[in-house]
Write a structure and sequence with these properties.
Layout: E1 6-8, E2 12-16, E3 22-26, E4 33-36, H1 38-48, H2 53-63, H3 68-84, E5 88-90
Antiparallel strand pairs: 1-5, 2-3, 3-4
Length: about 90
């Protein structure tokens, strides 16, 4: 999964809040919002810049005190969840 590339789906919008969180919404489901915090918010921001997941993983490793194994599991869990909710797609 880390070796794949992903992009935000076209019908998804997001907004950075002043507290560092990111709110994500699928336009055709306007009553459903997702709030991303901390590492998840940082990963989302980098995904919107169309960075590949390997680069995002490396960036997060540099900025957070987390083990590689734990981060890999967390990133994979986040990406799977975003895909299931049709917020992200594999390219």
């Amino acid at each position: 999964m880390i070796n794949q590339n992903y992009e935000v789906c076209e019908d998804v919008v997001s907004r950075d809040n002043q507290d560092g969180t990111v709110i994500v919404m699928k336009m055709d489901e306007g009553n459903t919002f997702f709030k991303l915090t901390n590492i998840s918010a940082d990963i989302w921001r980098e995904l919107t810049l169309k960075k590949d997941l390997n680069q995002i993983f490396s960036d997060v490793m540099e900025n957070y005190d987390v083990s590689e194994e734990v981060l890999r599991q967390d990133v994979e869990h986040l990406v799977k969840g975003l895909i299931e909710r049709r917020l992200l797609k594999e390219i």
